[in-house]
Amino acid sequence: MAVGDLKTEAGITQLNSYLEDKSYLSGYQPTQVDIQTLNSIGKAPGANFPHALRWYTHIKSFTQAEQKNFPSGTPISLGSAAPASPLKTAAPTTKPQSEKEEDDDVDLFGSDEEDEEAAKVREERLKAYADKKSKKPALIAKSSIVLDVKPWDDETDMKEMEKNVRSIEMDGLVWGASKLVPVGYGINKLQIMCVVEDDKVSVDLLTEKIQEFEDFVQSVDIAAFNKI
Fold first, then answer.
1. CA 44/CA 60 separation, integer angstroms
2. 145 with 225: CB under 8 angstroms?
3. Contact call for residues 20 and 82 (beta carbons, < 8 A)
4. Using an 8 Å Cβ cutoff, are 14 and 84 in contact?
5. Is pTM, for the whole model, over 0.70?
6. Per residue, what are the HEC states of 199-226?
7. What is the C-alpha to C-alpha distance for residues 150 and 136, in angstroms, rounded to an integer?
8. 217-227 and 187-197: which strand pairing?
9. Quick one: which of 28, 113, 120, 106 has its CA closest to 70?
10. Whole-angstrom distance, CA of residue 196 vs CA of residue 144
């Protein structure tokens, strides 16, 4: 049957008849067939289609994330469903006045309550998902950096140079091991390691701060840079 038929009373009647003894349209679990059909309907069936309304409310209670994980299912042809019973297709017969008054006082299908219950279930699932996601620790991007800090000459006090370098404090910066590495003519360079949080520490800013100790530092180079 065409999708457009589901927007007519005749189409909903066929759907109601098909779901009279079934929970889902394809198999024993919700599938994409249920989602596609639900989207084709557009709005909840009336209370005079109890089986279709039950199915609609149940499928609507799933979140969009859950719906995307439904299996594909096997397409069905509602046009082959058994003819609807008089309760579903025929116009209601005239009842005695007393029966009409009783029917007016009793909501046999409770459509409003079912819609409210489905909305409540959906809100609870969304809240549980949001709570679970908020408790998941955020991944902090870090980098391990080895810096070569070069002095002016062999008379530079390397211990004082290192003391000045380590005096730099920045949120997200942790200094590590260091050593002196010969570069020739009796000159050593300071090779020092640090770990930085990428979102908090700019490598360019860090090197600029080191070069501010101009009495000791001639230049700063990045010897190694690795993401952690």
1. 9
2. yes
3. no
4. yes
5. no
6. CCCCHHHHHHHHHCCCCCEEEEEEEEEE
7. 43
8. unpaired
9. 28
10. 7
Q: Tell me the domains of the chain and their CATH numbers.
A: 9-69 (no CATH), 142-227 (3.30.70.60)
d(CA 132, CA 61): 19
**Residue that has been written with the tokens 């140079």 in this structure:** 161
Q: Which two tokens stand for residue 196?
A: 């930085």
Q: How far apart, in whole angstroms, are the C-alpha atoms of residue 127 and residue 135? A: 12
Task: pLDDT tens for the chain, 228 residues: list them.
Answer: 344 477 788 888 888 888 888 888 888 889 998 888 888 887 888 889 999 889 898 988 899 888 888 998 888 776 543 333 333 434 445 555 555 555 555 555 555 566 788 888 888 888 888 887 777 666 789 999 999 999 999 999 999 999 999 999 999 999 999 999 999 889 999 999 999 999 999 999 999 999 999 999 999 999 999 988
3-class SS of residue 176: strand
Which DSSP helix (H) or strand (E) runs through 192? Answer: strand 187-197
Q: How far is CA 14 from CA 1, 24, 40, 76, 191, in A?
A: 10, 14, 14, 12, 79
Q: Which residue has the tokens 């069936």?
A: 45
Handedness of CA 49, 51, 52, 53 (dihedral sign): positive
Ordered strands of the 217-227 beta sheet: 173-184, 187-197, 142-151, 217-227
Locate 9 and state its tokens: 């009373």
Calculate the CA 24 to chain-centre distance: 27
